[in-house]
Every structure is written in C-alpha cells, then in structure tokens.
Amino acid sequence: MSEKRKDSKGRILKKGESQRKNGTYDYRFVDSKGKTHSVYAKTLDVLRQKEKEIERDIADGIDFAAGDEKVCDLVDRYMAMKRTIKPNTARSYSTVVKRIHADAFGQRKIRNIKKSDAKAWFVKLHDEGLKRNTITVYKSVLQPAFEMAVDDDAIRKNPFRFNLSELLPDDEAKRVALTPAQQKKYLKFLRDYGSGIYYDDIVILLETGLRVSELYGITLSDVDLFKRRLYVRRQLCRTGDQPYFVCPPKSSSGIRTIPLSNTAYEAFQRVIAARPKPAVEMIIDGCGGFLFLDSFEKPKVAMHLENYMRQMQKKYRKLYGDTLPTVTPHVLRHTFCTNMQQAGLDPKSLQYVMGHSDPEITMSLYTHSDYDFVEHAFHEALSM
After folding, report:
1. Catalytic residue set
2. Whether the predicted pLDDT of 332 surpasses 90
3. Are 216 and 302 in contact (CB under 8 A)?
4. DSSP 3-state assignment of 211?
C-alpha cells in the first residue's frame, strides 16, 4: 500500500492536491471535456474551498474551460452579435470596448469576476472622472455580455446584476430652462454681437424644441410654409470617421410634424430667402437640399453651432459677467418644452412634439417650473 502524501504540516493531501516548493498549493483536475486544469492557492484551506466550487460547477454542467475567457474577449464576442445599433450608440459602445481592452479589468478571466469586483471597477471609473450616466453605458455592455456567458454555462452567476443607482451618486448636471426674461436677453445679445450667422438657427431651436442634429437634417422639402408645418424625418450627423451621414431620429417617435409659431415661421422665411444656391447640391445618403448651409455652401452640423454658442457665451460673460446660465442647444430644447408646458399644452401633445417615446422623459426631465410661474398658477387656481 503506497504511503499517503502529506504537506509540510503533516496534513494528508487528497487526490490531485500537491504542495509546491514555495509552500503554496495546487489542485489538478480533469473537466467534463477531458481537459486538465490547475488552480492555485496560498493555503490548503483556500485550495479546498476552490475544489468544492469546482466540483459543484462540474456537477451542474458549468464549462470550466470557458470561464478562462477574458472579459475583453467576452465583450468582443457579444458585440459581434449585435446588428441593430444606431450610429450614435455604436460610437458610445466603441469607446466602452476600447476602454475595457486597455484596462487591467478587461484582461481578467470571467470566471474570477465577482459582484464586488464589478462594483469596485465601476467605483474606480467614477473616481477617475466618469459620470454615472457614462458608466451606465459600460453596464449596458457588460451585463448582457456576462448574461450570455451564464447562458453558455461558462459561469454560474452574472456579477453585473445590480442597480448602479445604489452604488454611485446621481452626478448628472441639472437641466436648466431659460426664463422669459433670459430668453429675451440672450436673443438681444445675439442680435447685437453675434453677426447674425446663427441667430435664426437658435430662434428655431427655441421655437420648435428640435435636437440640433434634427435641425441640420432639415431639407427644403421638410418646411411647409403654406401650412406652417415642419416635418422632422432625419438627423444629420458628423464624426471624425464620417464627415457627414444621415440617420433616423433618436426613436420612432422622433419622426413627427411640428406646427410653426409666428416666430418660427418668420425665421424659416429668412433662412430660406438667404440660403445660397450651390452649383452642385451635396447629396448625403440619398438626401439633398439641406436647408442650413455654412459659408462653404456645405450643410451645417451640430459642431458648428455648439462652437459658436461657446464663443458667444465667453463674449457674454466678458461683457456682462455670469448673469446667464450656460446656453447650449439642449438648453434651448429644454426651454421650449418648459415654455409649452407652462402655456398649457397637454402632456400627450407635448410628448409628441418633443419626439419622446416615454412620457416620463417629457414631464420629469424636460419641464421646469420657477416660483413666478407657480405663484401665477396658484392664484389662477384660487380665483376659479
């Protein structure tokens, strides 16, 4: 009868266990597919805990070898299966995938990722300056990727199944709406100091609630001055990789028809009258006749207006100090929505005009009441 093997402390080692020269332990075993693996631990107790987990996984059909896949490789495999991704979403996902590949977390084996590891990594990203909304995009990639690994029997549980709101603070910048007085002040400033080149663009955004990419996706055929209607059908976008491309609105609800106020109607009249007539109309993804053109007679994109508004903000603060909130295209959209809500437009109609698929977005994120409005509404209610 052969002598039983023991470790340096005289403890009997089981089949597959051994102690290495440096005092650590390893356990060799064969998986369900006949492949040999080794796991290591600093102590025999820790090693045997790992053995129990391995035995349970094998009994439950978990593929130990598949758990060797790196996090970054799992994400690549998951992303390769996605087919219906909009361009803006694809760009966000691309940034996430690159970061996962570059980070040490992405090089770890999926089998070794615990829920505490997933949470700790998100906290690290937050400490490095990423906002919670951005980290939500990371989670929207990693959680379904790990769910796929669970379905493939590569791991037992998905470590990314937790609420991010319970882990990270809500650090989203609070949306502001310009008051009527601020709107007048801002537009007067643009008339006086803005050279007029983007004045009507800003007026139309303020009067329609369009996203800036929707504004620059407008073609001549989308504006019906006779019926005073605007047809929103597309977005015109630009990236470093693609100078111009057309994509549908953010959701199916984004395809809509917006009535034109007198102010919007007059602004469109001015834009159409001043539009140059290029010798050759640029055709982008089958669309031509874009209404808003730059000085080179090429379609404007969001970056043009955003840069202009940043420059004007600096000029305003130099002249008048910090007496206006930062005005961006999205602030104009938020202001329009608030103006419509305060004017009494019913929630369902407001949702339609804004192009929101969810009424909760319209009412909770895009409307804003100040004290003056609340006070007026309060006295109106009392007088009934």
Report:
1. 211, 250, 330, 333, 356, 366
2. yes
3. yes
4. coil
Give percent of the chain above pLDDT 90: 59
pTM summary value: 0.68
3-class SS at 311?
helix
Quickly list H helices, the chain: 44-59, 71-79, 87-102, 115-127, 132-151, 180-193, 199-208, 212-215, 262-274, 302-320, 329-342, 347-354, 359-365, 371-382
Q: How many helices (H) and strands (E) does the chain have?
A: 14, 8
In angstroms, the Cα distances linking 84 to 79, 89, 147 are: 11, 10, 19
- Which residues are within 8 A (CB) of 305 and not within 5 positions of it... i.e. 6 or more apart? 198, 201, 202, 212, 216, 329
Query: Which pLDDT tens digit goes with each residue over 246-280?
Result: 988 877 888 999 999 999 999 999 999 999 999 88
Q: Which of 273, 264, 259, 256 is nearest to 217 (CA)?
A: 256
Enumerate the H helices of 21-169 as residue ranges.
Answer: 44-59, 71-79, 87-102, 115-127, 132-151
Give yes or no for a contact between 224 and 231, defined as CB atoms under 8 angstroms apart: yes
* Tokens, residue 247: 């994509």
Q: How confident is the model at residue 374 (pLDDT cuts 50, 70, 90)?
A: very low
Query: Quick one: tokens of 137?
Result: 């995009």
Q: 107: which 2 tokens?
A: 């090089």
Which residue has tokens 């070898």? 65
Cβ count near 376 (within 10 Å): 11
- How far, CA to CA in Å, does 288 sit from each of 210, 280, 331? 20, 10, 29
